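User: For documentation purposes, I need each entry recorded in a consistent format: the amino acid sequence on its own, followed directly by the corresponding structure tokens. There are two entries in this batch. Please keep commentary to a minimum and don't merge the entries.

Assistant: Recorded as requested. Entry 1:
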Amino acid sequence: MRIPEGHRHDATQAFRQVLNAAVKWRVIPESPAKLIRNPLPKREEIRPFETWADVDAVAVELGPTLGPIAVFATATGLRPEEWLALEWRDVDLRERVVTVRRAYSGAVLRDWGKTDRSRRRVPLRQKAVDALEQLPRRLDTRLVFPALRGGHLNLHNFRARDWKPAIRAAGIVPERRIYDLRHSYATWSLAAGVSLFSLARRMGTSVEMIDRTYGHLAADAESYERELLDAFDEKNEAFGRLSGTE
């Protein structure tokens, strides 16, 4: 019970897997954890940005060097630790795609393996391209979003010194977190009609996680789905009538 609520489900699930393996290997006769209840955690309350105008307002307050971060993160859905580690060699503006290869967290740079779900290609919409083209190419670093003096940006300092003051100056209420940029990408993608499968691939996560975390926020998803199905039915019926005539 001392484990944070948001981590209890995964911790218990991992514990069960270990004990199930022990049963399979005949180390123990039966798993004592099979009767333990392991409910999914309560859905995290997330607050995506409402419009691009809000994101742009925050970007203006962050300034020309840091402002593109807000736009790019919203336009691609990358995790903070992923855009912190992004290098220019990962960006292809001609093909309009970015390849996520690594992450930077806790002062440690980690490369995603070739089979890791987090290693992926993400299309660059025009907003992302515009944000990248605003950035100067520095000679002292390969990073796309480096710290002022080079090296990786300190996320904790960025949050305290830049992000929170920019949110308040832009008049965003309630205040949004840095991670809400990724939440906005997911929510808006669903509202635009992007499938759960495609969105899961772009965000480097599972379809189940996308549905559980964001599905309820896509206010227009049901109407969009109905439009797609109605259009298919009309096309199907028209083809049937045409086939019957011939």
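Entry 2:
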Amino acid sequence: MASIFAKPSISFAKGFITTTRLYFRTWQTDDIDLAMDLWGDPEVTRFIVAKGKMSEKEVRERLIQEMANQEKHSVQYWPCFLSSDDTFVGCCGIRPYDPSTNMYEIGFHLIPRYWGRGLAVEAARGVMAYAFKDLSVAGLFAGHHPGNIVSPHVLKKLGFQYTHDEFYAPTGLKHPSYRINRATYLQLTQK
């Protein structure tokens, strides 16, 4: 059986990620319409905030937070677009999780009409390659809402292993949590 990481079609143009079908860029202040399309959709946010939806003010705050992460840490949950027609599909990226161990958290949020097309896996593979190869992170952490039955399958496809349940303040719940370290990632990509 071929590795899920065999011969990835990933490149790094101007420090940003491109995959077979996607390209990434940073969030900009005038991206509020894109942010509203994503985080203003209760189908997207039902598993990431306790009340299940975000107000326009909360979406604006999320956008500002993503830009602040880029400014302070040079990472964010980058917006991603279809290379074929520049259509916005969502975001995928990393943010600091445990700076003392060089561990980052990976996450992805896609607009519902792009679910089920393998884009979350493709986007995450691109971000993982960038994180491990270009940023030399020690490991990646990921968590998901306990009611989300799709994310654990995506994370396992990416090589993450369940480690524990961890309290996630935005939902007020313990989320199943996963990790992958640099050595495991490099081993998976060598096959």
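Summary note for entry 2:
The beta strands are 11-13, 16-18, 22-24, 77-82, 88-98, 103-110, 139-143, 161-168, 173-181.
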